[in-house]
Amino acid sequence: MAATAAASGTGSSFLSPRRSRSAASSTVRAAASRFRSPRSVLGSEQLRVAQEGKRMGGAAEPRAAVWTPKAPAPEARLAALPREPRDSRMKIFSGTANRPLAQEIAAYLGVDLGKILIKRFADGEIYVQLQESVRGCDVFLIQPTCSPVNENLMELFIMIDACRRASARSITVVIPYFGYARADRKAQGREPITAKLAANLLTEAGSDRVIVCDIHSTQALGYFDIPVDHIYGQPVILDYLASKTISEDLVVVSPDVGGVVRARAFAKKLLNARLAIVDKRRQGHNMSEVMNLIGDVKGKVAILIDDMIDTAGTITSAAALLKQEGAEAVYACCTHAVFSPPAIERLSGGVFEEVIVTNSILLPEDKCFPQLTVLSMANLVAETIWHVHRDGSVSSIFQ
């Protein structure tokens, strides 16, 4: 499948019909420069360069080994597609939230990242100016709404408005991490449903379509009155785990009852592994208390799976319980590394064998630690953009 190549070490671009591999390599290396951990994996070219460094005498790091891709060579597949004049009408722009990810996506698609000027005035107001024509083009705006959430969200609104007023044919908002997705219901009286408000604002700003990755709750997709393509980061993590020799006796653990569906789907794809559930009682925002474990983890390797890690209170409490119940080792896997304080202290405390995340959110150096592995989801997002632009099936990527 095409998505499973998202974290593979193929040594060639995922979707690069026009651009050379050297250009993609330089872009990926620039994106990876913010990571100091040798386990950080930002695309196939990053893996290839790491392997070449080892052959030149660098230190060996078995956890960053290249594995065999499960998809055919992308060049051969793309060469069979008919060339259309509208291919030149695809424009990709990036906000300031995660520009390295956008650069890698553009490199895999074989296009240049659109030229855009984004700056702040002295009073904090945001100014955006497109520095190339988008008239009649399919525009894709890449901007995760991570911290600072309100700044990045407002920046995205202004980018949408700039494209709409510049006569873009269509505007697709690519949000690798959708902020405010957890505010998806009224748990108490007189509370807002902020996820619905954010969806309304994106629509009113002028976006025609939204691409999101692993949104916190799928019912939030219904808040949009425009088409939404929901993609999953699981294939990236599954490919990485398949490349490692962990153990044949695996158990996938959901850190709370709300993530059971996600954990069950992950366990089914991971050699049909066993499933366990951690029962917890939440006492307040960003506060949780582990109460009980449903399932057997004694003598097994436990893989905790969640959509995001914020303060890491839930997942570290669950890991501590798994250790008490006799788990041999505990791995943490998530798509979005929010990592609000004190997440780094909790995750690097030694309870986890490895913490595996994607680069949907750009992590600065002070949020990296030795147990962290960052996998690139650029190929997965690039494949989705390609299918949307060519009116193809997005769901076929995950089949």
Report on the architecture of this protein.
The protein is an alpha/beta fold and 399 residues long. The chain folds into 2 domains: 78-231 and 380-389, Rossmann fold (3-Layer(aba) Sandwich); 235-368, Rossmann fold. The protein is built from 11 helices and 14 strands. It has helices at 21-32, 44-55, 74-79, 99-109, 149-165, 194-205, 234-243, 260-269, 313-324, 343-347, 378-389; strands at residues 90-94, 116-120, 126-130, 138-142, 170-175, 209-213, 228-231, 250-254, 274-284, 287-294, 301-309, 329-337, 354-358, 372-375. The protein has a 7-stranded mixed sheet with strand order 10-9-8-11-12-13-14, sandwiched between helices. Strands 1-4-5-6-7 form a 5-stranded parallel sheet, with helices on both faces. Helix 5 (149-165) links the parallel strand 4 (138-142) and strand 5.
Please summarize what this structure is:
The chain has 399 residues and is α/β, with parallel strands linked by helices.
